[in-house]
Amino acid sequence: MSSKVDIVTEDYKEKYGFSDPIDAYAVKGTKGLSERVVQEIVRLHDEPAWMEQIRMKALKHFLERGPPSWAPELGEIDYQSFYYYANPTAKSADSWDQLPEYIRKTYDKLGITEAEKKFLSGVGAIYESEAVYHSLQGELAKQGVVFSDTVTALKEYPEIMKKYFGTVVPYQDNYIAALQTAVWSAGSFVYVPEGAKVTAPLQAYFRINEKNMGQFERTLIVAEPYSEVSYIEGCLPADELVSMGYTLRPILEMSVGEQVVSESGGFKIVTQKFVHQHKGTMLTVTPQSPGNRFRLTPEHPVLAVLRKDVAIRPSRSGWLPEVSSEKLKSASPGYHEAGTLNVGDFLVYVAPSETEDVPELGETEMKILGLYLAEGSVSYNRSLKRQVAQFSFGKSASEERLARELRALILSLGEKASVFKARGSYYCVSTYSRRLIELFVAHAGTGASTKMLSDAVMKLPVAKQETLLSYYLKGDGNRYNKKGRSMMVRASTASKDLAFQLQELFARSGTFANIVVRKGSTDTFQGRTIERKDQYVVEYTEGKRWSEVRKAGNRFFVPIKQISEEAYDDVVYNLGVEVENSYLVKGFAVHNCSAPVYTSQSLHSAIVEIVANKGSLVKYTTLQNWSRDVLNLVTKRAHAYEEATVSWVDFNGGSRLTRKYPSIYLLGPRAKADIISVAYAGAGQVQDTGGKAVHLARDTTSKIISRSVSKDGGHTAYRGLLHIAKGARNVKSSVRCDALLVDEKSTTATYPYMEIQEDDATVTHEASVGKVGEEQLFYLMARGISEGDALSMVVNGFLEPFAKELPMAYAVEFNRLMSLEMTNAVG
Predict the structure, then answer these.
(1) Could you tell me the maximum CA-CA distance found in the chain, to the nearest angstrom?
(2) How many CB atoms lie within 10 A of CB 776?
């Protein structure tokens, strides 16, 4: 049985479009290519001697070899005009106007609001030779899975790097591979040991900012036998709430540079914000706490434990399978597409773990603040022209005792307070203490529906927070006995923000509390209309005998009670977060995802090496729209051993010149290769792409599908190789390359090479060149469809084999991008 490795690690697209001066960089190399430049890269990376030797041999080979005759433009490039290494500081453009016009127009057409435009120009990004981030959840690291950058891997995993580096694509392979091996920087390093199961997305981002910068990332992926990796991508609607540690904020309003809480409970910085159109299904996931229900696309990864993995008894009629408490508490949650989750699976609620004490907020202040949250308010006394803080209590003896305790607490701080009966029945406490009023306003707010705790209070040590909770419940909580078996603790507030903060504080102290929303209503009393606001009830049960919520460290495993879906056609959002690549939605952990972005002009030369050992399946998907000034020269190759499957799914667009031919060497029996290559060439562009399958073992299969679209004078070319070696018996292969010309100015070419050295091979090859037919456009336009939309429909239908291989969110944006190209909206 073969296992699945499904990975995307290449997203080399610059979304933000602005250019910083290179003299602002923290570290920058010398312009030009020489031994000194290569030695400087080695020094900056602190690389071992064996890597330096490989680099120097590669440089010598590049300088002596010369460009291939079939790609003469490679000889016209001035390789001395580039900077081959830079480590810049993160810096933002000052305004949206600094972004290139064609990127602004693209996002206008995508429906991005002015607020998102401002966000894009304000992003702090890291460019050039250094990876933005790499992340991997802790549970996978325990299994031996490694996701790092290649520079770090040289230090931390030297044996693996030395064993595999340059074995799939040696520097002698081709002219550009020699250059890339000499000057490579950063890139992704992925190692999946035998039997390891990876469900979290693996993502890496690279940026080019400065003119004449060269970007040369090196990616190495090693999948040991029967290992599993998957890539997933999705987003959230604009109003979904993200935890910032002290409050929740709609994802629409989040900005780069702000802090969010990640899956570990620590505070991490938002590094990117993604926005795109989503037309399809939107899920609503409701956990045991109904007030925490949240919406997201089906592809968005959610941290969860599947019930089937911790069940000890099968399901009975009308019941879910019973779970083992011990198995659940010791379970290692993984990221799963929201659309694959079921009722009864367990979401992961994360309590923030970082603390920071404020000595001025002592035990007495926390008691008073807790009572203020429950019963207090600040108002302005017009007659005295002063602010006053008032607390309202009930008329019972216990309420009187609480009022008098409050007064005593205030007096103990050296401040004044008075207790009196309002309207002859209700006990009240008032104080004009400026110190206390400032404390209340700064750390809790004023009105009942707008109260919320400050960042400082939310980060206090747990003991102080427990004191606040205790006195809050004294004032605004109630307890009642449930059938003599357990005690329900419940508090109600009109402040939505405060309700989620209280839930978080309870979680930090070790208790998961549910939030129940009581919807407001309009009533009539004695001829007056009374508007009752929504009430947020925060509740938990002490000593509950049976509950499926389980605590493990600062995490709570909370069962899903309901999943519903609806049709959705609007903008969705996602965040890039440093280090852990995750954030919390109403307290529950989700993973961020990548999104297509754009890059500024430069030279991009990458090498991707994949080693797919027995029984693994590696799927490497690239969806890129480069700047029109980029020279995109990439070597991508995989070695597939016995029963392994490698799949390249590749889209190329935007760059002035692309030369990319993903290849797969089938080295073991029953290995399989799938290559889908799609290219779009517009005005002034050349997309020279294709694929190669090299059969070196018996019973192997391959399939190459190439589709290209040329418009406005653009040129596409398919360049492919099918090689069946002597001794590779019973090989099956199919090659199909189709080109579509949108107008008379555009051109296309096909260069298929077939080398078949066994008589029993089954090989099919088909090629076609077509034009958009006037009758097709007329048919669609006669039904009320505009010419631009009609052309988009024809082209998207032609490219459908590629789009269906993408995650839904990628497919939506790919189709949207091609539609914009067809209506001249891009560029």
Answers:
(1) 105
(2) 15
Distance CA 273, CA 100 (A): 18
Residue pLDDT, tens place only, 597-642? 333 346 788 899 999 999 998 888 776 666 666 788 899 999 999 9
Q: Is the Cβ–Cβ distance between 614 and 640 less than 8 Å?
A: no
Q: The tokens of 662 are what? A: 């993903």
Residues whose CB falls within 8 Å of the CB of residue 93, separated by 6 or more in sequence, listed in order: 16, 18, 99, 121, 122
Contact 785, 755 (CB under 8 A): no
Distance between CA atoms of residues 392 and 375, nearest Å: 6
Residues 388-424 have pLDDT tens digits of 999 999 888 899 999 999 999 999 999 999 999 877 6
pLDDT range class, residue 485, cuts 50, 70, 90:
low
User: How many residues does this entry show for the chain?
Assistant: 827
pLDDT digits (tens, 9 = 90+) for 270-316: 876 776 667 778 999 999 999 999 999 888 889 999 999 998 887 66
Contact of 187 with 169, CB cutoff 8 Å: no
Q: What are phi and psi of 74, to 5 degrees?
A: -65, -30
Q: Give mean pLDDT, residues 657-685.
A: 92
Q: Counting Cβ atoms within 10 Å, is residue 579 exposed (0-12), middle (13-18) or buried (19+)?
A: middle
Helix, strand or coil, per DSSP, at residue 807: coil
Give me the half-sphere count of Cα atoms (radius 13 Å) on the Cβ side of residue 628.
12
Grouping H, G, I as helix, E, B as strand and the rest as coil, residue 333 is coil
pTM above 0.70, yes or no: no
- SS3 at position 126: coil
Nearest by Cα to 769 from 690, 684, 686, 707: 707
Alpha-carbon gap, residue 324 to 314, rounded angstroms:
12
